[in-house]
Fold this sequence. Notes:
Elements: H1 3-11, E1 18-22, H2 26-38, H3 45-48, E2 49-53, H4 64-71, E3 81-86, H5 93-96, H6 100-104, E4 110-116, H7 122-127, E5 132-135, H8 140-153, E6 157-158, H9 160-169, H10 174-185, E7 191-192, H11 194-197, H12 205-217, H13 221-231, H14 237-252, H15 258-277, H16 284-293
Parallel strand pairs: 1-4, 1-5, 2-3, 3-4, 6-7
Helix pairs in contact: 8-9, 12-13, 12-14, 14-15, 15-16
Amino acid sequence: MSLRAFTREERAGFPAPVYFIHSKDRYLLTEAGRKITGSLTPEKDSLSLAIFDGDAPEYEQPDMDSIITALRTPGFFGEKKTVLIKNTHKFRSRKLKKLLDYIKAPFPETSLIMLSEKPPARDLKAALSSGKILSLELKGRELLEWIINRGKEEGIIIGRDVADLLAGITAGNTGQIAREIEKLSLLGKGKITLNDLNGLVAGGIQTSIFNLTTALANRDQDGVFKLFNSMKDSIEPIPAIGAINYKFTSLTEKGGKPSYYRRVFRAILEADKLAKSTGGEYPLEDLLIRLLQI
């Protein structure tokens, strides 16, 4: 299940008694937490919402007995109560096991929502058979839809071409995308164009990286090295490798030979490891040559 599923549950008021929401993307988890708490009116917050954090300092670490007590305590005037557990992945498995009995037979007037950077462990997943597991990973079309909708929230219109460019120049980093959209909303324009991104997003250099990855995907050797030579003194290998990875990942959704993409991603992975192990001191042209030769 994806972000669309989360949106459906949000609109329905999170009706299920138990949710386990996971994503490797911290920004999306933070946004999910904000939307969950924002669904309650201010008057009901204190009695209808209890928040626990697995990443709290040791002296503030919640114990499971307190969480279970909160789960079994009615909300505002007997209305539905929400218990939100952030950073569930930070709890030790032994500690989480105390929640299993509750999850198997949850209190009907309470909604338990767990946020985690990792999928549920096997025993927890089995206990969640009557609950819902939602993954917030964004890829391909869903990422583009998210960007377009995020623009609407900021009062601007972002077309698919602009969304695709934003996704490419940020390598799909949702936190960075959100920051760039916020900056674009300050331009005072109703509809954002591709030209609006030049010189604004990440200093403009990322736009050139995106053009570079497009030429690379098109196997345009002359175009690749013309672009690379124009920016080689200012390009950073690690974000460039991330943009290249995003571009080829999006291409896999359009089909192609699996054997070709296996070789492409092997080359990208090796380049990424070398770049990170050397603190970014990696000759990017080596990767460009390898990819053009595949």
